[in-house]
Amino acid sequence: MKQQRGQFGSHLGVLMAIIGSAVGFGNIWRFPYLVGENGGGAFLLLYLGITLVIGLPLMLSEFIIGKTAKSNCVGSFKKLKPKSKWHFIGYISIITGFAILGFYSVIGGWTIFFLVDSITGAATTSTELSSQNFDTFINSAWKPAAISLGFVLTVAAIVLRGVEKGIEKTNKILMPFLAIILVALAINSLTLDGAKQGLTFLFNPDFSAITFNTFLDALGQVFFTLSIGMGVIITYSSYVKNEYNMLKTQLIIITSDTVIALIAGIVIFPAVFTFGLNPSEGPTLAFVVLPTLFAQMSGGAILASLFFLMLFIAAITSAISILEMITAFMVEQYKISRRKAIIFPTIIIATLAVLSALSQSDKYTIEVMGLNFFDFLDALSANYLMTIAALLTIVFVGWKMDKSTVRNAFTSNGKYYTMLFPFIRFMIRYVVPLAIAVIMLSKLNII
Ligand code: TRP
């Protein structure tokens, strides 16, 4: 019996699911920091330009593949170019998916622990406690491992329920909630004494700070934040009904992702400057600096609870998209039921998550190539696998797919933006592959 493919029930569902995938830790602790450190408003302009010129064509390419082939990240390439090796890109995506989920689930587990601690008030009772909290927790080793297992199982339970009932429904409920929490926290931050200084750090343009490296940073961030180069967009767009206006949908997704990242900056920097701390990036910002700040604010426990709830939502909606990418592959390529298909990836991810949680504690040394396992998974996926897959994907759309097929997908069979197509195709064939090649070479220290 041929299995019925899942489909998103509404356009809003499509938007919420893809925005849910895109909005993650990259928006909350990486983007604001990058902007502040690299010339504020000047970096922002650069970032917006790169998002439009490079991010958009990349996302469009994945969309074109998914929408045309209506299959998973491996099957899509097989359908579009049978008897070729291009579906290899899909296998890279699967490996990347496992690697990302392996450490993302650990951070997901941290958000759960800190959420519970915030609700009980433990995370914010005193400044000393909040800064020690993270260290003690990480070093308790099996506790973060167990909680990240809980995170993995929750993700699996949602994906098991299917595209419309599980993924779409969860995103439709959680994403608006995330937006509301974020805006509430931003309003609170704007009332703090350091608001002006924080906003200046974030927005004041300093064009002298823009160098070749800033350019690369911006490029890398655009890539990471839009969940590009992982087959996730291919998978989600294969569930989209044909008649939607693709470019408009993409613009809404990209704008929302950027606006959410900016509001995260408005939440963070006024608070950081009010209490005279240094801006930093990465998990330390969310799990050490911010709890320290919340401990000093009135209503800190409530603010902290909201913040970690938001972080949890950002994490789980991204994790769902990755597991769906892998599950869709298993269901369609091995022709097994969703229930069966989900067991194998869940076991692997759970194992990776436990290993990377343990590798973060002082008690266990789990290293690969000189990095602890957690950092190894992070570096492997973000620095290498995603970039290679994205490059190959866009070359595939630009040079291997029929021009008419690409055109029909982009314009919904001639309905929308036909005039723009030659420009978009030029970007897909020349500009974007070149830009990615430059990032790759510079990451390998070749240029
Ligand atoms: N976009 C996510 C963020 O901003 C991170 C991410 C990268 C991701 N690739 C992904 C999430 C693939 C889901 C799927 O944090």
Overall description:
- With 447 residues, this protein is mainly alpha-helical.
- It has one domain: Up-down Bundle (Amino acid/polyamine transporter I).
- Helix content is 77%, strand content 1%.
- The protein contains 18 helices and 2 strands.
- It has a two-stranded antiparallel sheet.
- Helix 3 crosses helix 18 (421-443) and helix 13 runs antiparallel to helix 14.
- Residues 21-22, 24-27, 100, 224-225, 227, 230, 232, 318, 321-322 line the site of tryptophan (TRP).
Residue stretches low in confidence (pLDDT < 50, at least 5 long) are none
Write down the oligomeric state: single chain
- By DSSP (H or I, 4+ residues per run), the number of helices equals 18
- What is the succession of H and E elements? HHHHHHHHHHHHHHHEEHHH
CATH superfamily: Amino acid/polyamine transporter I
Report mean pLDDT, rounded to a whole number: 90
Bin the strand percentage.
under 5%
Question: Top keywords for this entry?
Answer:
mainly alpha; Amino acid/polyamine transporter I; two-stranded antiparallel ribbon; 1% strand; globular; binds tryptophan
Task: Draw up the topology in text.
Elements: H1 11-22, H2 25-37, H3 41-69, H4 75-80, H5 88-120, H6 127-139, H7 142-160, H8 163-190, H9 195-203, H10 212-225, H11 232-237, H12 246-274, H13 283-296, H14 300-334, H15 338-359, E1 367-368, E2 371-372, H16 373-400, H17 403-411, H18 421-443
Antiparallel strand pairs: 1-2
The protein binds tryptophan (TRP).
